Automatic annotation (TrEMBL), chains A, B:
The keyword Nucleus does not apply. This is HTH containing DNA-binding domain and MocR-like aminotransferase. Its cofactor is pyridoxal 5'-phosphate. SUPFAM superfamilies: PLP-dependent transferases. Pfam families: Aminotran_1_2.
Length: 395, 395
C-alpha cells in the first residue's frame, strides 16, 4: 500500500490536461486550448539562433548555470518591460521561469499555507486556479466587469478577510478578453498597500493588441514592491521554449531563487541562450506585428461570424487583443451541455473557470490557433448547436 | 508591507546557490559543486541533432505538447531503464521531468503535509533535503554504512513513526560514493511494503561506474508500486538540458501529471526532441564509456593524492563510480573551519548534508569537474590546510 497523498492535492484528473486532449482531436474544430498559430513560429530564425550561439559559445553553454537565468537575456527583457512604464528596472529585477505558469506556482508555494486567502477574478485562467488549489487556500472571487475586476468587491473582501495574494490578468484577460482600466490599475495598487496583499499581475497577452492604445502595467504604479509582474515568450515566440519571467524587487527574488533551486534547480541554459541570440539577430517587434495582423483578422472573423449566427439572447465580448472571445448563453443554458462526445466544436465551458460561483452559461472561444475558415465553420456549427439545445429546453 | 511568506519556507539563502557561488570563483580550485566535465559535453552532436530534428519536423515542434513529455523519447528511456532489471516497462511508466530535481520536488509536494515523516540518508544530497525542507516535514536520518544506509535503523524508525517517504541514492551515493548492496535493495522494498512508505530511488550516477559490476535498481525488486525511480541526462549528456525522468506505475504518474501541469505545465518539447534525435544518431553507451574513462582516471588520481598527503588520522572513501570522494577528518575538527575567505580550495562541508545529526568533521570532494592537475594541486593544498589546523588545535 502507498502512503496517503497530501490533503492539499485533489485526485481529479488535471483539467488542463483534459483541455489539451480536447484540442488534439483532429476530427473536431477546437476553440478550446489557448494555442498560438503554429504557422507563425519563427522556426528558421530560432534554429539559426541556436546554431549560431552553440557554435560560438564555449562549452559552458551546456554546463549548469544560474538559478535566475542567463543575465544578458534578463537584461534584454528588463528593457522590454521598461516600455510598459516600469522605471528603474534592470536584470536584477528579472527572474526567468519555466513559462509564466512556474511564476504563478512559485508565488503560490512561497506564500500559501492551507486556508490562506487568495482572490481571483471570476472567471480566470484555469492553470492559475490549479496552482492555487494545490496549496488549498481560501478562495474569494471578484467578478469581471467591462473595465476589469470589481474593485469595490475586492475592497470588501480584503477589508474583512486576511488575504495574501490577489491574482489578475489585467490585459486581454483570460478568458473574458477584458482590459483593466488605468484608474483601476492605480486603485488596486493602493488597495494592496493599504491591506498588505501581493498582486500577481499575469500579463502574457500584453503585446497582442489589435486595436487601440497600450496600457501601462499595474507594476508601473507600484512603489512598494506589492506587485509582481509575470510575462512569457509562449504567446509571442513559442510555447515549446517554456520561458517566462517574473519582475520584482531583487530582495524578493532571492526568496524565489531559494525556492526554485529546490524545485527544479534552474532553467535550461541552452534554451535561454537560443532566445538571447534570437533577440540579437531579429526584430521581435516586427515579428509581433506579423502575429498581430493575423490574429487581429481572426478576431474580426470570429466576431462577425458570431454576430451573424448567434441567437439574439446570446452575447459575446469584443476584445481589442489577446486570444479569446467570451460568449454568454441565456441564463438557463449550460455550456457544458454543448460538449458531448460527438460535438463538432470544442471550447472551454465556464463553470470550471469560476473558483467559487461556478457560473455555467458561458464559454471561452480561442481564435488564434484556428484558421479563418475553421472559425467560420466552427462558429456556425456552434450557433446551430445552441439553437438546437434552446429548442429542446423550450419544448 | 508584504504578506507573510509560508511558515514552510525558510528565509535563509539557498545552500545550493551558495554551493554554485563557491564553484564559480576561478581563483580557487573547486571540489565543491557536482559539475560534470564540460570538455566531455557532446556539443557538436547535440547541435546536429537539434538542427536535424527542427529542420525535419513540422511546426508542432514549437507548439504546446504533452505534460509527461515526448512519447518516443519516453520509449527510448524505458528501454534504457529496462536494462537495470525493471521488467514490463514502456513509455507509459515514464514521466519526463525538469532534471531529477523536479522529480524529487513533485513527489515531496504530492505527499507531504507539514509534519509528515520523511527518512533521508545521513549524509544526503542537499537539493533533495531542500525540496523536503520546503514542505516542513518531520525528518529522520538513517546513517550510511559501507553497504548502504542502516536498514535496522530504518526499520526502527518506520515501525515507531508514521513515515511517508524514504529517500535514497543507492548507487554511488551523493556524497559518500557508497553503493547499496543487493541484499539491502531487496530488504528496503520489503520494508516499504510492510510499512507502507514510498521509496524515492534517486539514481543519476548509475551509468558512471569505473570498476566492478552493475547492480540492479531497487525498482527492479518492486512488485507493488512502492518504489519510484528517478534518473537524469544531467550527468551523462548535459545539465543545461534540464531533462530527467521518473519511473512509476501509469496510475501513479497520472497524479504527478496533474500536479506538474499546475507547476510549470510541461517540459520544453524543443529540448526533448533534440535529445530524442541525439539518441537516434549516436551511441549513448559509447559516449558514456568516454566519460567513464576520464572520470575513472580522475577518481584514481584523487584517491592516490589523498592517500599520499592526508594525515593518518583522516580517512576517505574509495568509490567505484559517481562524482564524489568523502573525507572524514578527526572527530574534533570542523570541516567548515577550512572554508575561509582566502581558502585556495573549496568543497562541501558535511554539517549541512546531515538533516538531523549535523556531523561536522567530513567533506565532499568532487573529482569530475576538475582536471587531474587541479586534483593533485588541490588535494595537496587541502592536506596542508588540515595539518595547519591540527597544529593550531593541539597547540
Amino acid at each position: 500500500m502507498l502512503p496517503k497523498i497530501s490533503q492539499r492535492i485533489s485526485q481529479d484528473p488535471s483539467a488542463m490536461d483534459e483541455l489539451l486532449a480536447l484540442s488534439n482531436n483532429e476530427q473536431v474544430i477546437s476553440f478550446a486550448a489557448g494555442y498560438p498559430a503554429k504557422e507563425l513560429f519563427p522556426k528558421e530564425q530560432l534554429e539559426k539562433a541556436f546554431v549560431h550561439r552553440s557554435h560560438n559559445s564555449d562549452l559552458n553553454l551546456y554546463q549548469y548555470a544560474s538559478v535566475d537565468g542567463y543575465a544578458p537575456l534578463r537584461k534584454k527583457i528588463a528593457e522590454l518591460v521598461s516600455r510598459t512604464g516600469v522605471s528603474d528596472i534592470d536584470e536584477n529585477n528579472l527572474f526567468l521561469t519555466q513559462g509564466a505558469q512556474q511564476g504563478i506556482s512559485l508565488l503560490a508555494d512561497l506564500f500559501l499555507d492551507i486556508g490562506d486567502g487568495v482572490v481571483v477574478e471570476g472567471p480566470s485562467y484555469i492553470g492559475a486556479l490549479q496552482a492555487f488549489e494545490s496549496r488549498k487556500p481560501t478562495f474569494y472571487e471578484m467578478q469581471m466587469q467591462s473595465d476589469g475586476p470589481d474593485l469595490d468587491q475586492l475592497e470588501k473582501i480584503v477589508s474583512s478577510h486576511p488575504v495574501k495574494l490577489v491574482y489578475t490578468i489585467p490585459t486581454f484577460q483570460n478568458p473574458t478578453g477584458v482590459c483593466m482600466s488605468v484608474a483601476k490599475r492605480k486603485r488596486i495598487v493602493k488597495l494592496a498597500q493599504k491591506y498588505n496583499f501581493l498582486i500577481i499581475e499575469d500579463d502574457p497577452y500584453r503585446d497582442l493588441r489589435y486595436r487601440g492604445q497600450d496600457l501601462p502595467t499595474i507594476k508601473s504604479f507600484d512603489q512598494t514592491g506589492n506587485v509582481v509582474l509575470l510575462g512569457s515568450f509562449s504567446k509571442i515566440l513559442s510555447p515549446a521554449l517554456r520561458v517566462g519571467w517574473m519582475v520584482a524587487e531583487p530582495q524578493f527574488l532571492q526568496l524565489v531563487n531559494g525556492l526554485r533551486s529546490a524545485t527544479d534547480f534552474q532553467p535550461s541554459n541552452v534554451v535561454l541562450q537560443m532566445i538571447d541570440q534570437y533577440l540579437e539577430e531579429n526584430d521581435l517587434e516586427e515579428h509581433i506585428n506579423q502575429i498581430r495582423e493575423v490574429y487581429g483578422q481572426r478576431n474580426e472573423v470570429m466576431q462577425s461570424t458570431l454576430a451573424q449566427y448567434l441567437p439574439q439572447d446570446c452575447s459575446f465580448s469584443k476584445p481589442d487583443g489577446g486570444f479569446f472571445i467570451w460568449v454568454t448563453l441565456p441564463q438557463n443554458m449550460s455550456a457544458k451541455s454543448l460538449l458531448t462526445d460527438n460535438s463538432p466544436v470544442t471550447f472551454i465551458e465556464s463553470s470550471q473557470l469560476y473558483e467559487t460561483s461556478h457560473q455555467a452559461n458561458q464559454m471561452r472561444l480561442n481564435f488564434t490557433g484556428v484558421s479563418e475558415q475553421q472559425i467560420k465553420t466552427g462558429c456556425k456549427l456552434l450557433a446551430k448547436q445552441i439553437k438546437n439545445i434552446r429548442l429542446a429546453l423550450t419544448a
